[in-house]
Amino acid sequence: MGKSKVLVVGGTGYIGKRIVKASLALGHETHVLHRPEIGVEIEKVQMLLSFKAQGAHLVQGSFSDHQSLVDAVKRVDVVICAISGVHIRSHHILLQLKLVDAIKEAGNIKCFLPSEFGMDPARMDHAMEPGRVTFDEKMVVRKAIQNAGIPFTYISANCFAGYFLGGLCQIGRITPSRESVVLLGDANVKAIYVDEDDIAIYTIKTIDDPRTLNKTVYLRPPENILSQREVVRIWEKHIGKELKKSTISAEDFLATMKGLDYEQQVGLTHYYHVCYEGCLTNFEIGEDGVEASELYPEIKYTRVDEYLKRYL
Ligand SMILES: NC(=O)c1ccc[n+]([C@@H]2O[C@H](COP(=O)([O-])OP(=O)(O)OC[C@H]3O[C@@H](n4cnc5c(N)ncnc54)[C@H](OP(=O)(O)O)[C@@H]3O)[C@@H](O)[C@H]2O)c1
User: Fold this and answer.
1) What's the pLDDT band for 145 if we cut at 50, 70, 90?
2) Residue among 21, 138, 205, 215 flagged as catalytic
C-alpha cells in the first residue's frame, strides 16, 4: 500500500506550514488548499508557490463554494485542517463544519484530522469563560465528524514551544528575559512543551498508522514535561545567571483579565488551566488515546534545553 495522499487546509498558517513541510519530507503526495480569498496577500501567495516548488500541489477551493471543497477532498485520502483558532471566533467552527460536510459528501476520506493541536477539549468541560469557547467549538466539530461517520485522529499537541517556552511560560511574552521572570503561583505545576516542527512530524506519522485511527494522539515527549521553575532553571544555566523572581497568585493572575481584549482573555484562561491547574498532566491517557513518543520512538524530538538555545 502506498503512502496516503494528504490535503492540508490552512497550509499557510503557523502550524499548517510546518505540516505541509513534514508531509512532503515524509514522502506523501501533498495538496494544499489555495483559497481565492487570499487575494494579494503576497506572503501567503509566495509561501504557496514555495510549497509548489518543493513538490506540493496547489488546489483551488473556497469555504464559500461547497463543490470546490468536495473536489479538493476527492483528490486525497487524508485531510488535515490547520485553520486558526478562536481569534476568528465563530468562523472557525463554521468553516470546519463546512469541511466536514464536504468530506462526508466526498465519501473517500480514510482519516480526517481537524484543527485541534492543543489541550484535549474532551477534558476541558470545566474550563473557564471566555476561553472555554475554544474547547466547546472543537467538541462541536468532533461531534459532527463522529455523527457523519468520518474516520478521524485528534492531535493533542499540548504547548506550542514558541508560545510557552519562548516567554518562560509568561503570558504576553515570547522571548526570555535575561533579567527577571514572573512565576505563576508556586511554578511547580508540570506542562508539556513541543517544538512546532516536531508536532508536524508526529502529526504526519499518525496518518498511515492504524494504531491512531479514531483515537486522540497525545504528544507527551517525556523529557519535555516540566514545571515553569524547571524551564527557568534551564534558561538560567544557558545564560549563566539567576533571574530576579516575583510571583503572581492565581487570583491576581485572573484579576488581570479586566482590561484585556477578548482574544487576550481567552489566552489568559488557557494559561491558567495549563500553568496553575496542570490540565495537561493531571490525567492518565485512557483507552481512547495513545501517546506519540511511545508510538514513534525513532523521532528525536527537540528537548527544552536545546530549544531554548535559539534565544541566546
Ligand atoms: N497548543 C498551542 O499552544 C496552540 C497555540 C496556537 C494555536 N493552537 C491551535 O492550532 C490550530 C492552528 O492555529 P494556528 O495558530 O496555526 O493558526 P493561524 O496561523 O492563525 O491560521 C492558520 C490558517 O487558518 C486559515 N484561516 C484564517 N482565517 C481564515 C478564514 N477567515 N477563512 C478561511 N481560512 C482562514 C488560513 O489558512 P490559508 O490562508 O492558508 O487558507 C491561516 O493561515 C488551532 O486549532 C489552534 O487552536 C494551539
Assistant:
1) very high
2) 138
Domain that holds residue 104: 6-158+196-220+284-296
CATH of the domain at 209: 3.40.50.720
Q: Give the closest residue to 131 by CA, choosing from 310, 10, 279.
A: 279
Residue 89 confidence (pLDDT): 56
Q: With 60 as the cut, is the pLDDT of residue 85 above it? A: yes
pLDDT range class, residue 86, cuts 50, 70, 90: low
> φ, ψ for residue 119 (rounded to 5)?
-70, 160
Residues with CB under 6 A from ligand 1: 10-16, 33, 35, 38, 44, 63, 82-85, 88, 91, 95, 115-118, 157, 159-160, 163
To the query of whether residue 205 is one of the catalytic residues in this protein, the response is: no
